[in-house]
Design a protein that fits this description.
By secondary structure, the protein is α/β, with parallel strands linked by helices. The chain has two domains: 4-219 and 266-345, Rossmann fold (3-Layer(aba) Sandwich), CATH 3.40.50; 222-262 and 355-481, no CATH class. Helix content is 27%, strand content 21%. The protein is built from 15 helices and 19 strands. The strands form five sheets. It has a six-stranded parallel β-sheet, sandwiched between helices. A six-stranded mixed β-sheet has the order 7-6-18-9-12-11. A three-stranded antiparallel β-sheet has the order 10-15-17. A hairpin with a 4-residue loop joins β13 (414-417) and β14. α13 runs antiparallel to α14.
Length: 491
């Protein structure tokens, strides 16, 4: 078997380079891997480290440093190939390394994401002072806290979205072109001891206390809307009437905006990456941490073993089924779990931690990003009356600080029903949804944006919004200058 390279997450670092410092990051995880495979079979376990986490360092810098370290000290890995097991932010480091430095096919054979923060973490939004105060509780021991890496970790980072969308483009598919088998392992039960932190993301359902399951899952869905040729010919006065009922009529769907691109795992050259949810598994910590925790260790190692044993596409498909079975085992265990009385201080129904959520990320992409725009969801005016309003599903909304043209929504799709003792899907009750995106230019009244209004009928709603998954929707809102901005006058 190829060597294994471990890449850790944000803040899981010490300024020391002693074996004890390394053990603080990975615990006995490397020893467990050696025990599973035998010393003769594990050629090498490289504990890759990025000790200097100064404010100015970016993911690009860390990926380049990784590349330089590989070429300087481990040329043989680039020749013979290697596997990668990452934790948290390490997911962005290795994916960016593949995008920026790897050949096709890649020397990386398999990537196992342990709570990989592929699409961000809520902790990246809070102030640096708060992060420094509470990180010792949630993150593994470390010393450095304030880094530019947080920009990439914030929900809706345009840099991060582009990183993942790179692997949805023909010629850059992670498996078909780079030849890499990917696997996702992520918990959805935060340690209740973290709930004392005055940070909502520490106790968020559908999350391991730091990373949402839907943020870790690399099975991204993608939709791209752009103006039609007919929309480009609209007169200024028509486009400027942004709330014009004529533009919003359902029979105009597809007239002003068209779905120009769509990507979905399981179609063409985008196979579904296996995803598993271990039981009683949090982001970090000696008790429940996905890397060093005692409780999920056996299940996590089973999943890692399946991943590293995958050598062909048939085995990858079989691994996906095994990962699904492990998740089913987790949900059966969660169903039977009875919380101790002292939990009542923090949580009434612990099984809601396993409620299935989804992220929907909207980004305006028309050259100059639109900063002042709104997104409306409506389930009342569909052809069939919805059983619940669509807004009942929304748990969180975040506008990115660096790229305010990106808004991330967090939806609770399945909710645990204590009476029925089961998780009840809520999305089918919507009977379809209208999505409207509109914008304004506050600095002038000579610019009009043509609003987009699109209906996701019940079938498409279930197709594009999936539990434990992120859907990225890029919209090119049509921005039109008025007729007086530029005139051609006769001589």
């Amino acid at each position: 078997m190829e060597p294994i390279v471990l890449i850790h997450g944000y803040s899981a670092e010490s300024s020391e380079t002693t074996p004890e410092a390394v053990r603080n990051i990975y615990g006995t995880f490397p020893d467990a891997l050696r025990e599973n495979y035998g010393s003769a079979n594990v050629i090498e376990i490289d504990v890759s480290r990025y000790i200097s986490l100064a404010d100015g360092l970016t993911i690009d810098d860390i990926s380049r440093a990784l590349d330089r370290a590989l070429k300087r000290d481990h040329q043989q890995l680039l020749i013979s190939g290697f596997n990668v097991i990452v934790h948290s932010t390490g997911a962005l480091v290795i994916r960016n390394w593949v995008r920026t430095f790897s050949g096709r096919p890649s020397p990386v054979k398999r990537i196992v994401y342990l709570a990989g923060a592929n699409l961000g973490s809520g902790w990246a939004h809070i102030g640096k002072g708060q992060l420094a105060k509470w990180a010792q509780l949630v993150f593994q021991p470390g010393t450095e806290r304030r880094v530019r890496v947080l920009d990439a970790l914030e929900f809706g980072s345009s840099w991060t979205l582009d990183l993942h969308l790179h692997f949805l483009q023909q010629g850059s598919y992670m498996h078909a072109n780079y030849g890499i088998y990917e696997f996702v392992v992520i918990g959805t039960q935060a340690n209740v001891k973290w709930f004392e932190a005055p940070i909502p993301y520490a106790s968020e359902d559908g999350s391991d206390g730091v990373v949402r399951v839907s943020s870790s899952n690399v099975n991204v869905h993608y939709l791209h809307f752009k103006p039609t040729d007919e929309a480009q010919k609209l007169a200024w006065n028509e486009a400027s009437e942004q709330r014009n009922e004529n533009l919003r009529r359902s029979d105009n769907q597809g007239k002003w905006y068209e779905l120009s691109e769509s990507k979905q795992p399981g179609i063409n050259n985008l196979p579904k990456v296996p995803v598993a949810i271990p039981y009683a598994c949090a982001h970090s910590g000696d008790e429940m941490g996905i890397v060093i925790g005692k409780q999920p260790r056996e299940q996590v190692l089973r999943l890692v073993k399946v991943a590293l044993a995958t050598t062909n596409d048939d085995q990858w498909t079989a691994a996906g089924k095994t990962f699904d079975e492990e998740t089913e085992i987790t949900y059966r265990q969660a169903l039977e779990f009875q919380a101790p009385p002292w939990w009542k201080k923090w949580i009434d129904e612990p099984r809601t931690q396993y409620d299935k959520h989804a992220q929907v990320i909207f980004r305006d992409q028309d050259g100059r990003p639109v900063e002042h725009y709104d997104i409306f969801f409506d389930s009342e005016n569909t052809e069939q009356k919805s059983e619940i309003p669509v807004l009942k599903l929304f748990e969180d909304e975040h506008k990115n600080d660096i790229t305010p043209n990106v808004i991330t929504f967090y939806l609770r799709l399945d909710a645990f029903d204590a009476t029925l003792k089961q998780w009840v899907p809520r999305l089918p009750k919507l009977k379809g949804v209208y999505i409207e995106v509109s914008a304004t230019e506050p600095q002038t009244d000579q610019i009009a944006y043509l609003p987009l209004r699109y209906e996701l009928d019940p079938d498409n709603l279930l197709k594009w919004i999936k539990p434990h998954t992120t859907t990225i929707i890029d919209v090119e809102l049509l921005r039109l200058p008025s007729d007086i901005v530029f005139k051609l006058l006769p001589a």
